[in-house]
Amino acid sequence: IVVNNAGVNLENESWRTTIMVNVIGVIEGTKLAEKYMSKTSGGRGGVVVNVASTAGLTPVFFMPVYVASKYSVVGFTRSVAMNPDVGRSGLRFVCLCPGFTDTSLLSSGLKSEGISGNKLVEELLTSTGINTVEFVVEGFMQLLLTDDNNGGVMVVTKQRGIRYHGRQRKVNKL
Ligand SMILES: NC(=O)C1=CN([C@@H]2O[C@H](COP(=O)(O)OP(=O)(O)OC[C@H]3O[C@@H](n4cnc5c(N)ncnc54)[C@H](O)[C@@H]3O)[C@@H](O)[C@H]2O)C=CC1
Ligand SMILES: CC/C=C\C[C@H](O)C(=O)/C=C/C=C/C=C\C=C\[C@@H](O)C/C=C\CCC(=O)O
């Protein structure tokens, strides 16, 4: 199992760091997994979970670079997953797209300039809700334990629960 989870949410003069960590980091991690885990190169197969965000599925006005990075993760993961050679590799590639989740990334982000006290941001948070980490982990475990979901993009939001984006797939209860 490989989970490319590292992420930052920096805009303004530090936006390049967001791209380096959130995009380059995920691509590097995925390519390493392909190199060392693929059955075609002596590996045993497995699963690569790339952590994107609901911000990789819908624009968010106050963090355009972060959104760009997460759209990249979703598009990259789905593209790798649909390669015809994936079948022989024994690998599957999936995306986890949580909504706002109660971690230090969110708490520090909400204190940053232009976001703290912004009424539109507060309205968005109220409408989408904030996941607990435990709820996101529940979705993550379902991603791991479902072995026919290559290319799957799982959305985890407080407002609409755990579901696959764009696919009419039932999410099994653990
Ligand atoms: N908290 C939220 O609202 C949401 C978070 N996410 C994503 O979930 C993932 C985890 O984030 P959180 O746990 O929320 O935040 P977090 O800030 O608690 O954890 C981020 C982790 O990434 C690590 N990291 C940052 N830069 C790194 C680098 N260059 N090399 C190695 N590790 C590095 C940090 O040390 C930290 O442990 C991120 O990809 C984030 O974008 C997605 C949707 C919502
Ligand atoms: C201050 C922000 C700090 C951190 C950002 C956080 O890490 C993050 O990723 C935030 C995501 C915010 C998303 C905002 C809007 C989400 C809207 C949802 O209702 C839409 C969800 C999914 C759309 C696609 C679908 O399948 O419905």
TrEMBL record:
Positions the record marks as coiled coil are: none
The question of whether Protein transport is a record keyword is answered with no
Q: Which catalytic reaction applies to this protein?
A: 15-oxo-(5S,6R)-dihydroxy-(7E,9E,11Z)-eicosatrienoate + NADH + H(+) = (5S,6R,15S)-trihydroxy-(7E,9E,11Z)-eicosatrienoate + NAD(+); resolvin E1 + NAD(+) = 18-oxo-resolvin E1 + NADH + H(+); prostaglandin E2 + NAD(+) = 15-oxoprostaglandin E2 + NADH + H(+); 14-hydroxy-(4Z,7Z,10Z,12E,16Z,19Z)-docosahexaenoate + NAD(+) = 14-oxo-(4Z,7Z,10Z,12E,16Z,19Z)-docosahexaenoate + NADH + H(+)
- Role noted for this protein: Catalyzes the NAD-dependent dehydrogenation (oxidation) of a broad array of hydroxylated polyunsaturated fatty acids (mainly eicosanoids and docosanoids, including prostaglandins, lipoxins and resolvins), yielding their corresponding keto (oxo) metabolites. Decreases the levels of the pro-proliferative prostaglandins such as prostaglandin E2 (whose activity is increased in cancer because of an increase in the expression of cyclooxygenase 2) and generates oxo-fatty acid products that can profoundly influence cell function by abrogating pro-inflammatory cytokine expression.
* PROSITE patterns given in the database record: ADH_SHORT
User: What's the name of the protein?
Assistant: 15-hydroxyprostaglandin dehydrogenase [NAD(+)]
Assigned keywords, A-Z: Oxidoreductase
InterPro entries recorded for this chain?
A: NAD(P)-bd_dom_sf, Sc_DH/Rdtase_CS, SDR_fam
One Pfam family this sequence matches: adh_short
Q: Which family does it belong to?
A: Belongs to the short-chain dehydrogenases/reductases (SDR) family.
GO molecular function term, any single one:
15-hydroxyprostaglandin dehydrogenase (NAD+) activity
> Residue span of the signal peptide, if any?
none
Q: Which organism is it from?
A: Magallana gigas (Pacific oyster)
Q: Which SUPFAM superfamilies match?
A: NAD(P)-binding Rossmann-fold domains
**EC number(s)?**
1.1.1.141, 1.1.1.232
GO cellular component annotations of the record? cytoplasm
